[in-house]
Amino acid sequence: MSPRDSSDVVVVGAGVVGAACALYAARAGLSVTVIDRGPVAGGTTGAGEGNLLVSDKEPGPELELALFSTALWRELADELPAGVEYEAKGGLVVASRPAGAAALRAFAARQAAAGVTAADVPADALRDLEPHLAPGLAGGVHYPQDAQVQPALAAAHLLRASGARVRTGEPVTAVLTGPGGEVRGVRTPAGTVHAPYVVNAAGTWGGDVARLAGTHLPVLPRRGFVLVTEPLPRVVRHKVYAADYVTDVASGSAALQTSAVVEGTPAGPVLIGASRERVGFDRTLSTEALRRLAAGATTLFPVLRTVRATRTYAGFRPYLPDHLPAIGRDPRVPGLLHACGHEGAGIGLAPATGVLTAALLTGDRPPVDPTPFAPGRFAGVAA
């Protein structure tokens, strides 16, 4: 058996979460093979905006994971090439009415008690942070811990730093198991890779990988669009979004929801989101979603009304019913671990997911309590 045919662990998925799992597993001394049916970052990662956020998370397990991951991203930014475009620009959440501003302050106070840095921004100080914001907003909260990376490049550089063997363009067609049901590796059209551990980091397609292993994970796709403008001078300094974005993130509705999210990039284009809807894997362009995105962005930043949108792209967030990712051992298939279902937070949560997964693989003490993310919480959910 050649080294190419065996590893300590196979990671299924070459997005940013799979790349982070590969990096930290390799740092823990494991040999790693990463397999993806497409290219590196060819799924949800490549369709993301690269947000590394604490500002949109309620106090609880996900926020704890995000705070840990934020610290890890700062470390990685010092290690990885500048091409990942890590930018600690901070976030600004704004409200249009006094009642909304009061709700934002209350939310920020709960987050601050959980370790988030949040500063109230009165209405008359908003344009000190964002000179092109629309007048008349009621106030906001500044989150200096929010940051951004270029997600596809981040995934690629994490994989390169891991030293893992990367096999792209190979769909996993079977998860191999032994007589006791334990993982023995995976099969692809190019052959078999033997390993005692398989990490399901397939994002929106994580449910498919789970089924190949004879288990169940209720991951569903939640479609979103992003509008991209022509390159501009730095019109938007922070990640700026309307307060209703937090409500949309936490919603389980299948219907189209949009909330204004606007941010500049080091390369010049402005990225405009965010939309959410559950329509399966339908990539049909939604003119209604794009109309709402443009309207929301120009309401926040009137200066964008004369700016051209040069393109749009769609992606599918991996949605789980309780809005928490599945990270950890599958209780029904020994040797199978899941690291998927992060919805729109996968890029931000990737390093923490990788560290947590590596600890579970090696038996080390996890740096964050893994219990809330345990895949076994879905054991009673119907397939």
Please tally the β strands and state the result. 19
Query: C-alpha Rg, in Å?
Result: 21 Å
Mean pLDDT: 94
Portion in strands: 25-35%
Structural class: alpha/beta
Shape: globular
Distance between the termini: 37 Å
Helicity, as a percent range: 25-40%
Major beta-sheet overview: 8 strands, mixed
Brief sketch in words of this structure:
By secondary structure, the protein is of the alpha/beta class. It is built from nine helices and 19 strands.
Q: Your description of this structure?
A:
By secondary structure, this protein is of the alpha/beta class. 28% of the residues lie in helices and 26% in strands. The chain is built from 9 helices and 19 strands. The strands form 4 sheets. It has an 8-stranded mixed β-sheet with strand order 5-6-4-14-15-16-13-17. The two termini are 37 Å apart. The model has no long low-confidence stretch (mean pLDDT 94).
Q: Topology, please?
A:
Layout: E1 9-12, H1 16-27, E2 32-36, E3 51-52, H2 61-79, E4 91-95, H3 98-113, E5 119-122, H4 126-129, E6 139-143, E7 147-148, H5 151-162, E8 165-168, E9 174-177, E10 183-188, E11 191-194, E12 197-200, H6 206-212, E13 220-229, E14 239-242, H7 244-250, E15 257-264, E16 270-276, H8 287-300, E17 309-319, E18 326-329, E19 336-340, H9 346-362
Parallel strand pairs: 1-2, 1-12, 2-8, 4-14, 12-19
Antiparallel strand pairs: 3-7, 4-6, 5-6, 9-10, 10-11, 13-16, 13-17, 14-15, 15-16, 18-19
Helix pairs in contact: 1-5, 1-9, 2-9
